[in-house]
């Protein structure tokens, strides 16, 4: 049985449940800077996005419980479900976590910070990536937004589904996110595989959840 694995704060859980019931997450998208007129304008837009993500990171850390070394966290990849709801992966040099975003504000950390698994210190040359978490749509799940971590050597990540379809992920500062048609379940072996490209062009593949 595939389940949504997150224990969400009640207010956020209610909002997410509404999204699931209404099917509003069908067209999840990764935000970008959008069209720019010139380099200066593009830099201004990127700076605004980065500032917003920094603020969301601080809000999530403040709203989280027992977050280690609160001042050390910085933003990673961001994934917006729609204009109101989304996620921001945040990280420091040791851990990563998924921040819940509502109306541009960080409302908390999904499931808290797991300091036992999925940590940067466990990444190796043979497996320079690891599973972090998944948010599954609907019940039974019809798709999933997947989150992971990667070493600094990884420049690109794709998820390979059981039908050999390839879904490119967005990578930012050792974090990645992708929306796949194939969910992950804590009750079953891993569904998706990761294809990671390193700086030297080497490609490494392995199960998303080891």
Description:
It is a single chain. The chain has 210 residues and is α+β, with helices and mostly antiparallel strands. It is 18% helix and 35% strand. It is built from two helices and twelve strands. It has helices at residues 10-22, 39-63, and strands at residues 74-80, 85-91, 96-102, 105-109, 129-137, 143-150, 154-160, 166-168, 170-172, 175-180, 193-198, 203-207. The chain has a four-stranded antiparallel beta sheet. Strand 3 (96-102) and strand 4 form a beta hairpin. The radius of gyration is 17 Å and the shape is globular. It comes from Amycolatopsis ultiminotia. Keywords: Signal. This is Secreted protein.
Structure described in brief:
Keywords: Signal. This is Secreted protein. With 210 residues, this protein is α+β, with helices and mostly antiparallel strands.
């Amino acid at each position: 049985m595939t389940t949504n694995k997150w224990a969400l704060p009640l207010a956020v859980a209610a909002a997410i449940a509404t999204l699931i019931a209404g099917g509003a997450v069908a067209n999840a998208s990764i935000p970008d800077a959008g069209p720019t007129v010139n380099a200066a304008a593009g830099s201004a837009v990127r700076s605004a996005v980065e500032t917003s993500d920094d603020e969301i990171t601080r809000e999530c850390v403040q709203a989280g419980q027992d977050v280690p070394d609160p001042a050390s966290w910085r933003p990673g990849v961001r994934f917006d479900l729609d204009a109101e709801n989304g996620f921001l992966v945040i990280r420091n040099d040791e851990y990563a976590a998924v921040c819940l975003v509502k109306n541009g504000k960080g409302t908390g950390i999904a499931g808290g910070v797991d300091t036992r698994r999925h940590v940067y210190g466990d990444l190796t040359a043979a497996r320079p990536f690891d599973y972090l978490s998944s948010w599954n749509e609907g019940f039974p799940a019809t798709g999933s937004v997947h989150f992971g971590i990667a070493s600094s050597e990884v420049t690109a990540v794709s998820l390979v589904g059981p039908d050999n379809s390839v879904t490119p992920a967005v990578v930012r500062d050792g974090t990645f996110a992708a929306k796949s048609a194939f969910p992950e379940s804590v009750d079953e072996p891993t569904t998706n595989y990761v294809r990671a490209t390193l700086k030297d062009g080497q490609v490494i593949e392995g199960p998303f959840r080891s």
